[in-house]
Amino acid sequence: METNDETRRETRRKASRYVVPVAVAGVAAATIGLVPALAASGDPDLPEITAQQLIEKIAASDTQTLSGTFKISTDLGLPSFAGLLDGVAGGAGGASSADPADRLTELVSGSHTLRVAADGPDRQKLTLLDGSDEYSLVHNGDDVWGYDSKSGEVFHEKAEGGPHGKPEKPVPSTPKELADEVLKAAGGTTSITVGDTAKVAGRDAYQLVIKPKQSGSTVESIRIAVDAANGTPLKFTLASTSGGKPVLDAGFTKVDFGRPDASTFDFKAPKGAKVTEGAAENEAGKPEDLAKGFMGPFADLEKGGAPNVIGEGWTTIAKLDTGAPAPKTEEAPKEAQGFLDALGDKVSGKFGSGTVFKTKLVNALMTDDGKVYVGAVTPDALVDAANAGK
Q: Which CATH superfamily does the domain covering 37-287 fall into?
């Protein structure tokens, strides 16, 4: 007779069969968690500058205050998420409609307009506009507030109350931080040049163009438009080798670097509004807990241990061993079957057979014997790695 531990292990193995396709979508979404937006074109006449000088200009910029409007357009090449999480995870268990863990995932697809204001590290406000409805996320000192005008619900959490005991950023990071992360990752596998000048939100800008030198990456190029006067990144565009619309095209349409009025960051819950406290919701099981559940087998592989890293730079591939066979679409929850069919392609080679779960940015190969190869590389690169038996 099976023990409780054995039953739990078997349940986890079965659940892990559906982790890869959902995790691929999650990893792809995570790569666009830092948001700028679209902007008007132009070709201002600016003094010549080298790539090194432009990088130094970005590093030297220290924009603490700004307000403005930006648009973000994302296209990961994913099928619709509609109904997927409800079918696979059983819903969010009554989570507040004002919880940022839910609302900011809307930025993963389509085009959105946002208003933003910042006054140093302790005051930020982001408002997501959706027709006549608005969703606002406000960080003011020790408090983080989310407000959904459509439902009238309010979410509140202490800024120091993150699950890891340290402050969490309540709003997406700035274009400068996004540029910093890209530049830190650049090395000998990367080409960095200065492209044409541009006009972004009415401001003159240089464009830093970053491209992989290696073949096999899904990234065609990254363009960062940099304010010619103060070095602040204003626009970010990530293009895929698959062509079509950029994976991310995001940047300011209007920007002011003056200090916003202090009242911008004031928030008081409307009378009668349902207020959900973040700590209480954590205990009940927040949406991010569901995400951790999806990613669990990657973080706690009892048999496979830590991932094996193959290659370097833009063509790095992580290899894992889940110890579970690849998922069969017909065995998945009904709501997830169409998603899995659209996301996966059957492949075969020296390694045997398996399924490639694909987006325009992150792809993963899961072999029928439970090995996983994942990276921002083409499906062919994943198959080659599996055939090499690395």
A: Lipoprotein localisation LolA/LolB/LppX (2.50.20.10)
